[in-house]
Amino acid sequence: MKRGICFLLALTFLWLSACSGETSSNQAENTRCAQCGMPTEEFQAWRGKITGQTTVKHYCSPRCLFINSQSQGLTEADSVFVTDYYEQKLIDGRQAFYVIGSDVIGPMGHDLVPLATRQAAEEFMQEHKGQQILRFGEVNTETIKGLSK
Ligand SMILES: [Zn+2]
User: Fold this and answer.
1) How far is the CA of 70 from the centre of ligand 1 (A)?
2) Is 35 a residue whose pLDDT tops 80?
3) CA of 43 to the centre of ligand 1 (A)
4) Residue 9 falls within a domain, yes or no?
5) Looking at the predicted structure, is the pLDDT value of residue 79 above 50?
6) Any domain includes 141
7) Measured in angstroms, how far is the CA atom of residue 61 from the centroid of ligand 1?
8) Which residue has the higher pLDDT, 26 or 48?
9) Is residue 142 assigned to a domain?
10) Mean pLDDT of the residues in the chain
11) Among 60, 70, 106, 139, which is most exposed with the fewest C-beta within 10 angstroms?
């Protein structure tokens, strides 16, 4: 009798671990940062993505998004999304305003903080001692290197 219960418990445990293992690995696979490999669901406040015609790349932060798109190249067909710092929702990354040099730290350290409007970006500059507002096309490899300083 005792042995039977143990067997049942063992079966249940196996079944549970098989199930949870499967779902978590699927999610992780789909949403790992394409640049650094961190699971992006842990960084909802910073995540971004680039969708091409057949591909979707997820990123843990604007920093990873820029590093990856600069090394891989970006085409006009790619749609870029970043998370607005105040609204906490995905916005068009090509239209966003990016504040650098602020006191806000992202998942990968100092980051470019995306905001949907210039007004919000200026507000953020005041609140968090930002140094500069950049548009998407103004962010280059030097900008990214400068973040760590
Ligand atoms: Zn990353």
Assistant:
1) 14
2) yes
3) 9
4) no
5) yes
6) yes
7) 6
8) 48
9) yes
10) 87
11) 70
**Mean of the pLDDT values across residues 2-9?**
58
Q: How far is the CA of 37 from the centre of ligand 1 (A)?
A: 6
Determine the Cα angle at 40 with ends 34 and 43, to 5°.
135
User: What's the structural domain count of the chain?
Assistant: 1
- C-alpha 109 – ligand 1 centre gap (Å): 11
Structural domain of 40: 24-147
When pLDDT is averaged across residues 113-141 and rounded to a whole number, the result is 97
Higher pLDDT: 30 or 128? It is 128
Q: Residue 50 and residue 79: Cα distance in Å, rounded?
A: 5
Identify any residues that bridge with 11 across adjacent strands, giving them in sequence order: none
The answer as to whether 12 is a domain residue is: no
The residues pairing with 82 across neighbouring beta strands, listed in sequence order, are: 48, 91
Residue 72 CA to ligand 1 center (angstroms) comes to: 15
